[in-house]
Amino acid sequence: MEAVTHLYTYPDAIATESGRAEIDAALARLSAELDLEHAVKIRGGHAGRITVPDVSPDVTWTAIASVVPDWQQLFLPRPTD
Length: 81
Known about the structure:
single chain; alpha+beta; 12% strand; two-stranded antiparallel sheet
């Protein structure tokens, strides 16, 4: 099975251009940390949900904590199972 992680943004975080730019910058750092072939981006139709392909949630959340220290202001917390 292919690993996928979904990140969710706060609605207010993507409501402004500056908020979207901040999230885009965080996603660029995350993509670089995970050494992804293509950078993860916010998509138009599903602006609140971001898909990180081919990476497990454990690896993704460890990388977020490492390279996006203010992630709590941008992304909803990791869901608990």
